Every structure is written in C-alpha cells, then in structure tokens.
Amino acid sequence: MSFAGARLLHISLCVLAGSLVLCGQALCQSAPPDTPPSPATDLVVKDTPDDDGGSVTLSWSLSADDKGGAKDVLSYEIRRSKSPDGPFTTIKKVLKGTSSTTDEKKVENNVDYYYQVVTKDASSETPSAVAGPVRAHVQWFNLGRLNTLLITILYTALLLYFISRAKKGEKLFVRRIAGLDALDEAVGCAPEMGKPALYVPGISTISDVATIASVNILSGVARTVADYDTRLIVPNFDPIVMTVAQEVVREGYMAAGKPEAYREEDVFYVTSSQFPFVAAVDGIMVRERPATNLFIGMFFAESLILAETGASTGAIQIAGTDAIAQLPFFIAACDYTLIGEELYAASAYLSRAPLLLGSLKGQDWMKMFLIGCIFIGLVTLNVGFAGFKSLFDLPLTIFR
Amino acid sequence: MTGLELFWTWVAAFLTLSIYSFLYKDNVFYKIAEHLVVGVSVGYIFTINWFQGLHPYLFHPLAKSGQEPINLLRLIPFFLGLLFLLRISRKYNWLSRFTIALVMGISCGVSIPYTIEARLIEQTKASMIDFTQQPSIWAGICSAIILVGTIATLVFFFFSKEHKGVLGGTARVGIVFIMVGFGASFGYTVMARVSLLIGRLNFLINDWAKGTYHFIFG
C-alpha cells in the first residue's frame, strides 16, 4: 500500500468512528428513560346501590397527568381479581377524563373482589393501589324510587277515600265537558240517518293509559248504540285491544238488554301496521259512510288523515287523545275534541259510576297537592333551601 | 338502473299514485292498493312475530328444555296464549278473560310507576324554578311564563268545581296556553308532513320519471 493509500484509509476510519460516536449521542438524546404516568388515586369500590346485584361501582381521582399533564394519559384500564395479590384481569377500558364506572361483567353476588385502575399513556402504564374487598348484593328495596312509592300510595289513598265517599251515596260534582255532552247527541244521529257509528280505539297497545281510557268510553258508547239499535263498527290495530273491545261491546249490548243485536264481526282486527291501518279505516269511512266517527285513544301521525277523511264524508266527529302532537289536528278537523285528561275523565262523566267519579275527585285532589308542592318548592328554593326540591329527584339520593 | 329495478320502481310508483288517487275519490286503484298494503302488512307482522317472538322465546327454548329445565316455565305464557284462541269457541270463550285480566293488570302495574315518575314527579320538579339563578332577566321572564302556563293548565283540567270566578279566569288563561302550544305544534308537524310529501314527489320525479327516461333513452 502506498503512503497516500494508507493515509486515505486512516482518514476514512476516523470519519466512520466519529460518525458512530455522533449517532450514539444523538440516539441517547432522543430516547430518554421512559417515565410512566402518575397513577389514579383514591380508588373507592362499592356495591352499586339500589340494584338487583351483579354490579360494582368504582370511582377514583384522575391521574395528575390526565388533562394537560406532562405525560398525556390516554385511558384507564379496570382490572379485577378475587385475591388482593392477583392475578388481575382486565374488565374494561374507559377514556381519559373518566373518574367513575361500573363493573357488570359477570360479577357474582356475595363474592369478594379486588380492583385496580391502571393509568395508561402511549408507551407505559401505572397501576393504582388495590382497593377492596367489595361484594355485590341484591337490594330488596330501591330507595332511589322511594318518592315514586310515596306518591303512588298517596294517590291510591286519595282515590280510595273518594271512591268510598261516592259509594256511600255522596253526590260528587263534575263540571260540564262539552265534547262529552255531544257524545250522546252524536251517537244518536246514527239511527236517525240509518247509518252506523265508527269507533277507532287508537293505534296503541292495551298498556297505554289512553287505550285503557278509550276502552272505558267504548263501554258507554256501546250501551248507547245498543239503545238506539245502531250498528257499531270498531276496527282494531292491536289484537289484544280487539279482544278487550269485543268483550266491552258485547257487555254494552247486554247491559242495554239487547245481546242478540251484538255483531262480533263488527269489532275486528285490521293490521298492526300504521298506514295500512289508516288506508283500511279511510276505506271503511268512504264506503260505509258512518254518521258518527269517534277517534278516541292514542294516535300518531295518522290522526289528520283519519279526521280529514271523516270530515269529507260529512260525519259528526269526536276525537279524544292525550297525544299532544296530534291534538291540534283533531281540534282542526273534528267537531269536538277531548283534550288530554278530559279523556280520562270521560268514562266517569258518562257513566256517573261511583267508582269512576271517586277516582276523578281523587285526581283533582292530587292536582291540588302538586300545585301546592310547586308553590312550596318555589318559595323554599328562592330563599336558598334546595332540600324540598331534592325530594323530587329521580333517583332519590338523600338516603345515600 | 336494471330492468328488474325499473319494474319494481314502476310497481312502487303505481301504488303511490293509487293511494294519492283517493284525494279525488274512492276508486278501484285505491281499493287495490289498500287491500294489498293491509294484506302485506299483516303477513309481514305475522312473520316478525314468529321470528322475533314465538320462535326465539318459546319454541326454540322449549326444544332445549331437556338441557335447561327452567325453560319449561315458558309453557305458562304459552298456555295463556292458547286461552286467547278459545275466543273462537262459543262454549269456552270466557276462559280468554283470564289472559285479558292478566295482560291488563300487568300493563297497569308496569305503566303506573313510570307514568307517575315522568308525568308527576319530573314535571313538578321542573316547575320549581330558582329565579335567583337565572342567567338573564329575559330567561327569568320566560321561566315565569312557563310556570304560570303550567299552573293555569293544571287548573283547566280541574273537574270538581265549575269554572267560575278566579278558578274560571285561571282556567281561561290555561286554555290560551294550551291553544298557543297546539298552534306551534301544528305548524311544526305540518312542516314535517310537507317534507314527507317532498320525499314521495322526489321518488316520483327522480326515481320513476327520470329513471324510466334514462333507461329508455340512455
């Protein structure tokens, strides 16, 4: 090797060695030792209150690195074990900023569990101190709904009290309800015109309060119709409502002393699909031309179509519903409309039966009680005492 | 659009126009559409009830009742359901009343607590307004209007006294609030119905008319 060649090789080796040293220093500067995030603290675990067991509620204080800390926390991992020493298995993950959750993943009742909340960032994690033991229990009484129970008891007591007064023969006053005064007159038109009456009990199920009220009114209507020897057509949306309607109409005819006039085929099921039902009832209205149309119960978007078609046939129409969005359409297209609670009052008003009149009185007293509560709540809240209002919290928390 | 898609678009357009023909008067096209839609909907609902009710919750678990004896409890609702069918018997139709009574009882029991919570407790609580915490005078005035409306409307639905004097005046304020509310609701819902009409017209113009034109003339 010549001198120049040896010199060149020496320079190359020096450059290579220098490069390696610089690279090493650079690597050391870009990867400092990893620092895990601060742990979640104050972990508290307890049986979820007011439930049927199988659930544990966890709450903790957020890591110091959550929300703008030096190490941005990404999530918290909930780990569970039946022993404080582990092994812990991951139950669920919650996002940063979350400081409470419930564990409902196959939690056995009356078994000790221990929990850990693991704070995680992009590259590392820090477990909290272990909390526990905690046991899930079945609670027999839901204290969170105690106010619901008390109001239900009060309401029931008021109803029973006024029903007993009505049964003893006390005359209970009920104010005039225009739509119901017209009901007899409207049903009475049908025989004069030699046409049937149509009764649509809404398009909801029997569990709907409006449907139950409608069935009560149907009972009175059936009796009146039977008295007038008129045909009553009752198309139904729900098969169970149809069954109830058949019973009610049959009893109405029997109460009027004309069981032979009852035609079961006039109380029939159409379909449980909204607009096909409307199409069918519209067809009945234009072909049978009932003298009276009664739309009483729960209605939805079909209300205007039904009422408009009925109006176009020249029938007297009475509607009644507690569906607030549909009432404007009935008011616009029907002769009389029972608004909201008038629907519930209707059966008492029509029959004057002590049981129903007593319940109507009870409802009125309940309204007075609620107006009184609103006034007390207003006064106490505006003088700085929120305790009274908190009695109406759902769920009720003052006992926790 | 393929030929088959065009065919079904024509069927849908025909049925849409048949239903709309009712606006003129009852006619044979409306009757065809009406009977078709009622029949199809009943068949559809029966299928849904079978696949989402009877099969997964009754027949399938009963088929496994050898492995899980508790599934035999499902025979109770099955039996109650059968009682419903006895309505077709003149002699034994009274037995269906047991099922009706059970369904009515359960329905009332389930719905009463939720109705009390949603319609009494929540609304009473919402009416207890803290006027010292209102963000502005205008917000306070709005809250006061809502409060007066709530109480006046409650008074309107008071049936035990004749609506005369103070009670009558308050009830009249209540019915004004109710009608204002209905007016707003009417306008809002009419706009929603107009949007439904627009949707149908959009189908007739773009899917049916334009689709047919493009299919024929490319």
Care to give the gist of this entry?
Chain A has 400 residues and is α/β, with parallel strands linked by helices.
Q: What is the molecular shape of chain A?
A: elongated
Q: Give unreliable regions of chain A as ranges.
A: 20-24, 26-31
Any idea what the CATH architecture of one domain in chain A is? 3-Layer(aba) Sandwich
Number of strands of chain A: 14
What does the average pLDDT of chain A come to?
85
Compute the CA-based radius of gyration of chain A. 37 Å
Largest sheet of chain B: none
Helix content of chain A: 40-55%
Main attributes of the structure:
heterodimer, A: 400 residues, alpha/beta, Rossmann fold, 14 strands, 18% strand, B: 218 residues, mainly alpha, 6 helices
Could you characterize what this model shows?
The complex is a heterodimer of chains A (400) and B (218). With 400 residues, chain A is α/β, with parallel strands linked by helices. Among the domains of chain A are: 41-134, Immunoglobulins (Immunoglobulin-like, Sandwich), CATH 2.60.40.10; 172-352, Rossmann fold, CATH 3.40.50. Chain A has helices at 3-30, 146-167, 178-193, 209-227, 239-255, 274-288, 303-312, 327-333, 341-351, 354-382, 387-390; strands spanning 41-47, 56-61, 75-81, 89-95, 100-103, 113-120, 125-127, 131-134, 197-200, 232-236, 267-269, 292-296, 316-321, 336-339. In chain A, strands 11-10-9-12-13-14 form a six-stranded parallel β-sheet, sandwiched between helices. In chain A, strands 3, 4, 6, 7 and 8 form a five-stranded antiparallel β-sheet that branches. The termini of chain A are far apart. Chain B is mainly alpha-helical and 218 residues long. Chain B has a domain at 131-218. Chain B has helices spanning 3-20, 28-63, 75-85, 96-127, 137-156, 165-217. In chain B, helix 3 (75-85) packs across helix 4. Chain B starts with a helix and ends with a helix. At the A-B interface, helix 2, helix 5, helix 6, helix 8 and helix 9 of A face helix 2, helix 4, helix 5 and helix 6 of B.
